[in-house]
Amino acid sequence: MNTTGLSFWQRTCELPPIPERELPRAVDVCVIGGGYAGLTSALFLARAGMTVCLFERDTCGLRASGRSAGHLMQGTSEFPNRAVELWGETKLKAVWDIHRSNNELVRELAGDSCGYQRKGNVYLATSRDEYLELRESFSVLQRLGVKGVRFIESGELSALLGPGARRGMFEGGLIAGEDATIHPMKYVARLVQLCLAAGVRIYQHADVTEIRETEGGVELVVQGVGGREQGSDESDRSKIKNQKSKITAELAVVCVNAYASQIFPALEGVVIPSRGQMLATSSVNVAIPRGLAHCANFLYEYWHARESGELVLGGFRWTSESAELGTYDDTVLNTEIARGLRSYAHELYPELPEDSVEHEWTGIMGITSDGLPMVGPLPGKFRIWLNLGFSCHGLSTATKTSQLLTNYLLEQPMDLNIEHFAPSRLF
After folding, report:
1. 286-339 pLDDT tens trace
2. 270 in Cβ contact with 261 (< 8 Å)
3. Is 243 exposed, middle or buried (0-12, 13-18, 19+ CB in 10 A)?
4. H or E segment at 75?
5. pTM
6. Rounded to the nearest 5°, which phi and psi values hold at 410?
7. What is the phi-psi region of residue 382: left when phi exceeds 0, alpha when psi lies from -120 to 50, beta otherwise?
């Protein structure tokens, strides 16, 4: 059983070959980060005619993007009834619109190769209080004109949970019919493929140790990339690993999410790393609706079944939240959370075989104080832009924010506004 290291998604998908290329002296844009945000930023900028280098410290999708739940959701980590009190209707509607548009854009880019399924997401009430908040949230969404959302009573839940689910766990809920699920690592692999086709130069195991704004642009110091064709033999690779090279660009786009303060110390405490934990079973013969996303307990637990029969489940961070904040280590499991997830899986679906859990893993998310991403220039800088801080919703947000960021930089028409996500709001 895989208990640490790679996720279920990473073990069931391989990246396409990435050619080793000479590092140019200068390009139009350097993108830092090889997850959803970095790859889509690079893709849209390259498609707009920019020369783009992308640098990833590990391999593309190795961190949070390859470890997520695979849910494409609308909304945020707060129920709409709470979010409208925090931000007001205009900002809340903007968030839902960006997520809806992100979903469409992901479907377009993913094609038929990533297991994309739009079957909706069921928000389940585990208590009367949660039921009432979901009812109130439904009213808020109706007032905002959000489409595809309806409230459901407990009598409708059996069809949405499946015949194999335990009865009586939930009091009702809300279904967002336009939400979807996807194989997140296959989406990463597809984005790598699209980036290479668009001319993006991708450098893996390339650690950007310094970004400095200059009079005419930016200068990056990159460790692990040679100044010529890389990797003729092992000794050559060893030398390159410790070699530092410089590259200049007109602009840098930083897409490292939870790891932002490791590049910019000023972001310490602004983007906070938080570890989430998940499990996946083997392909099981239990009647669970395939591709339909579920979440419960105020979004703290979330799951769906793949077409191939695996149940993927995450959550229980609340049982040990302080231990999961501030850490960058995604190679270990929290045993208390692991016990909670296993118990909850069997509580949900009693017919699950006792030995059905085959994969357990963790991933590091980047959380901002208001739960919204940071998209725009780093305060005090003009040529260093951020696209990070997705607060548990990177898959649901980053593709669209990358498109909007590109359109803003190139002064192209924008269908949605990113001013709500300006990094300056958190300083």
Report:
1. 999 999 999 999 999 999 999 999 999 999 999 988 889 999 999 999 999 999
2. yes
3. middle
4. none
5. 0.96
6. -95, 5
7. alpha
CA distances from 13 to 37, 71, 172, 186 (A): 19, 17, 36, 6
Contact 173, 152 (CB under 8 A): yes
Q: Can you read off the two tokens belonging to residue 322?
A: 């302080």
Run of H or E residues at 13: none
DSSP states of 344-408: HHHHH-TTS-TT-EEEEEEEEEEE-TTS--EEEEPTT-SSEEEEE--TT-HHHHHHHHHHHHHHH
Q: Output the CA angle 1-18-21, nearest 5 degrees.
A: 140
The CA R_g of the chain, rounded to the nearest whole Å, is: 21
Q: Which of 142, 147, 179 lies closest to 160, judged by CA?
A: 179
Distance, C-alpha 199 to centroid of its chain: 24
Place of tokens 């980053």: 398
Question: Which domains does the chain show, CATH number per domain?
Answer: 8-12+19-66+186-269+371-426 (3.50.50.60), 272-367 (3.30.9.10)
Closest among 8, 64, 50 to 327, alpha carbons compared: 64
Structure tokens, 234:
């092992």
The token duo for 145 is 């004109």
